[in-house]
Amino acid sequence: MALFRGTVRRMFLLGLPLMLAAMAAGWFLFPVIFGAAWREAGVYVAAIAPMALAQFTAACVDSSLVVLERQDLALVREAVRTSLLLGGIVIAYLLRWPPRPVVFLFATTGTLAYILYGLITWHAIRRHRRAAP
Fold it and tell me: 78 partner at 20 to 30 Å CA-CA among 44, 60, 85, 89?
C-alpha cells in the first residue's frame, strides 16, 4: 500500500507542472505562437490536460491488478472507463452539441474514468493486504 501511495503521489506531482504548462500553453500561447486560427485547438489542449494528468497518474499502477490476479477487476475498470467515455460521446451526438462542449465533456468523463481507475486499483490492493496472512 505504501508503494502504491508513494508511486501515485510522485507521478501526480511529476505530472502536475506539465498539466499546468499545457493548460497555460493552450489558453495563452497557442494563439500567440500558431496564430488566431489555432485558438480553438489551444482550448482543447487546456481542456484535455487534466484528463492526461489523471491517466498519467493512474497508468503507473494499472498492472497492480494483474500482479494481484484480479483480472476481474481489470475488466470492470476497463468497462467503466469505456462506458464513461463512449457514453459522453453518444450523449453529445444525440444532443447535437458543437465541438467545444463535446471536448469538455470527453475531458471530464475521461478524468472521472481515470480517477475511478485508480480507486479500483487502490481498493484491490487494500483488500489484498487485509486478506494476506
Answer: 44
